[in-house]
Amino acid sequence: MAMKDGELKKDYAYRRILEMIGSGKVSGGRFPSEPEFCKELKVSRVTLRSALKRLEQEGMITRSHYYGTRVSTERSSRKILITGIPSNYGYCERKTREGQYIEAACRQQKLRYDAFNLHYLQDPEKLAEKYCGIIFSGAAIRGDEPFMEVIRRSGLPAVYCREDECNTITGSFSSVGVNMKNAWIAGIDYLISLGFRRIMTLISDDGRSEQRLGFTRSTLAALFRKKGLDEAAGMVVNVRENEFNASVKETIRELKPEAVFCYSDYFAILTYNVLRELGRRIPQDTAVLGFGCGSELTNPPLSSVSLVPPLFGTAVVSLLQSMTENPNLKPLELELPFNIYEAESTARINLDNLFQKKRRKK
């Protein structure tokens, strides 16, 4: 860890020691003797003592002539709380992947953690007593929910795992996620690059789709027209989960799309079932692209815009640690890269359309 420009040595020493505590790097919870510690941190004894005094006042360490300087037992026993609103089974894959990456990052850095439903957060004092930071997730969070007030009142550093393009709480909390609108556009461009023109797009109702993706049915249609895909502009469909099979089956039977781009991986799996019932092969007759993670377990394996990169967990935990080290840090919106997970459900290139496009350009 390097010194920042203009940073005092005592503040640098404080940050270094705090990072050691947070990452579990203090062997046996006990720090080296002052001469050894000064040498390790490359600071004077006066500077070291100033940093240690500050940490002692904050309850992070204890100091005595007999036991030396140790990590506070009370503080070192506190954990990170990983919490969220449980998704329905249709959207659990992405949430599961996020949780796996976050927990792996905690284990790698030897950080203890608990995982609970957000609705269990009811006592801010108990939160502050037991935990040292909060990582939380949930779609369509407004900010006025009871659990959000509990998080605020706890005074703990908190990082939000973004799930929507339009958020109302990112001005108050640091967050990590991808640019959902750009990720959605990338999915469209990917299908176009494969030569698909008759692209059917399945989204949720306009209110939720605008919040999650930054698009409504009309603005998506306008985007397709701008890209010269008038047929695709007329194939944007609002669909509800409880009406999915009937409405989507009739629309696919009528429009016969070359590809279907789905609001979520779950919508993609439901689309698989509809296509099979109609006798349409994937991807030979109709390609399917999801929006979430993709999967090798489906038949055929599902292509998807992947919204949870492997570095997700490391980014979330590192941001939380930075907030612990810098309590006055203003909320940050950390944007991570997305990518296209290419699998068999889109393993088809429509050469006729690509050649026609090339001839039109000439």
Entry keywords:
single chain; alpha/beta; Arc Repressor Mutant, subunit A; Rossmann fold; 3 domains; 14 strands; 44% helix; 17% strand; elongated
**Number of helical segments?**
15
Fourth-tier CATH superfamily name of the largest domain = Response regulator
Structural class: alpha/beta
Low-confidence stretches: none
Count of β-strands:
14
* Residue share in β-strands: 15-25%
Shape: elongated
Overall residue-averaged pLDDT value: 88
What does this molecule look like?
With 362 residues, the protein is an alpha/beta fold. It has helices spanning 9-22, 34-41, 45-57, 73-76, 92-108, 124-130, 146-154, 180-193, 206-213, 217-226, 230-233, 244-255, 265-277, 312-325, 351-361; strands spanning 61-64, 68-71, 79-84, 113-117, 131-137, 158-161, 174-177, 199-203, 236-238, 259-262, 287-292, 303-306, 333-335, 339-341. β10 (259-262), α13 (265-277) and β11 form a beta-alpha-beta unit. α5 crosses α14 (312-325). The chain starts with 8 loop residues before the first helix and ends with a helix. The model has no long low-confidence stretch (mean pLDDT 88).
Secondary structure layout:
Layout: H1 9-22, H2 34-41, H3 45-57, E1 61-64, E2 68-71, H4 73-76, E3 79-84, H5 92-108, E4 113-117, H6 124-130, E5 131-137, H7 146-154, E6 158-161, E7 174-177, H8 180-193, E8 199-203, H9 206-213, H10 217-226, H11 230-233, E9 236-238, H12 244-255, E10 259-262, H13 265-277, E11 287-292, E12 303-306, H14 312-325, E13 333-335, E14 339-341, H15 351-361
Parallel strand pairs: 3-4, 3-5, 5-6, 6-7, 7-13, 8-9, 8-10, 10-11, 11-12
Antiparallel strand pairs: 1-2, 12-14
Helix pairs in contact: 1-3, 5-14, 6-7, 12-13
